[in-house]
Design a protein that fits this description.
Length: 190
């Protein structure tokens, strides 16, 4: 396992979406109040064919969705603990591990809590202020290989990981806002 301080896939053992060897298909994203978004997803076998296909589909769907930095299985209607993240090129990102997918992820350590604005493809009309750890250690399994990895990250990537792990646990960012005063209508720019 790695401390996450090296190259773009440090901590991932050289894993990339191409490691899946499956062409992902774009899936429809469900919106709240769809019931799958409020149920905890089940653990998956990261080496199973359906998990590998789901991982590829999450990456494909994320890549065609403007501004998307993460997408969890419940957001495409699947009650499973699988999500994709890629904060590459985001102006708030400091630590960047590139595009990756984790299965059965769990937070090992969370420190340096800070508020920040979040939005979500499954809650298209709202944003909200959510307090999240700005330093994070997460463990999870890589789809395809099943290898257990540990990622150490911070800032915006840490926020994205927590947001997606919440989806896998049946929570939306709206479940974590401080109250109605911390929820805002999403701005639309023409």
């Amino acid at each position: 396992m790695s401390d996450g301080q090296g190259g773009p896939y440090d901590g991932l053992g050289g894993w990339t979406p191409e490691s899946l060897a499956v062409a992902g298909e774009v899936r429809a994203v469900v919106s709240a109040p769809h019931p799958v978004l409020s149920r905890a997803g089940g653990d998956v076998d990261p080496t199973a064919e359906e998990t590998v296909r789901l991982a590829a589909d999450l990456v494909a769907t994320m890549r065609v969705s403007p501004g998307c930095v993460g997408l969890a299985a419940p957001q495409v209607g699947v009650g499973a603990r699988v999500f994709a993240v890629d904060v590459t090129g985001h102006p708030k990102a400091v630590t960047v591990h590139g595009t990756f997918v984790l299965c059965n992820a769990r937070v090992v350590e969370a420190t340096r809590w800070k508020p920040g604005r979040e939005g979500c493809m499954s809650v298209p009309d709202l944003t909200g202020d959510v307090k999240r750890a700005s330093r994070l250690v997460v463990e999870g399994d890589l789809p395809g290989t099943g290898a257990l990895v540990r990622l150490v990250t911070d800032g915006f990537e840490a926020r994205a990981l927590q947001h997606e792990i919440d989806h896998c646990e049946g929570q939306l960012f709206l479940d974590r806002v401080a109250g109605a005063h911390a929820v805002y209508q999403r701005k639309v720019y023409l």
